[in-house]
Amino acid sequence: MSGVDEPLDQADLSSLLTLIFDRYGYDLRGYARPSLQRRAGAVLARSGLATLADLQAKIAAEPASFGDLLDSLLVHVSAMFRDPSFYRAFRQRVVPMLRTYARLNIWICGCASGEEAYSTAILLAEEGLLERTQIYATDLSPHAIERAKAGVYTRDEFDRFAANYGAAGGAFDLARYFTEAYGRVTVREFVRRDILFFQHDLVGDYVFGEMDVICCRNVLIYLARESRERALAKLRESLRPGGFLCLGHSEQLSRGARDQIVDHVAEERIFRQGARA
Questions:
Q1: Is residue 39 part of a domain?
Q2: Structural domain total, the chain
Q3: pLDDT at residue 275 above 80?
Q4: Among 38, 57, 86, 160, which has the highest number of CB atoms less than 10 A from its own CB?
């Protein structure tokens, strides 16, 4: 039986990724191999199967098992108001410019369980902008999208969210945005109503444009170089002139992208495209 830390056969991993694309339409072949290898090894260890070839045979024969595999191969690490300094900078350096826009379109890429989308909605509500904003929140995983739509979190998660919210410059008690029952908290309807959650493949699917803000934080680091460049090109294409692109702390624009997008808050990886007409 294979363990999590044992090297996986790269040909078997490639074959598994090809099957996933051919049979189910999810193209993970452009994702960074070290991350995929670690996650595939963990899946294999939990499954009780001996090799990736066995795992491939299982998902080919049992389509119902594929959803769990996909969910395990993708990265869903998130928290509300994660990286509080980013949200402070967004509130102080981006929101004043957004106030001048009649309507706002915001795209949250790789929304995982919805935490970043809800954090953005809460911040905009406090700044009086949510009612004129449409937030599009996307993720490759259908399971993640269902969890995001539900907006239900544990009490322990909420405690971590509340600490981040305070550090991010939150104006109130975070509890005002949730209801609580049976040890779980649920995002209130007024926070949820301007968010559309849906499945989208940043690398393989078409772009949808006219975005004033795109948050694609801690997503590109999991893509191999060619796929990362393709994703960045799509993000640039989706931004309106003067729009803001927000990346994660470990992510940078390529040299070519800097011909069109410039630093706005460099230390928080907030960039701006051109000038709004």
A1: yes
A2: 2
A3: no
A4: 86
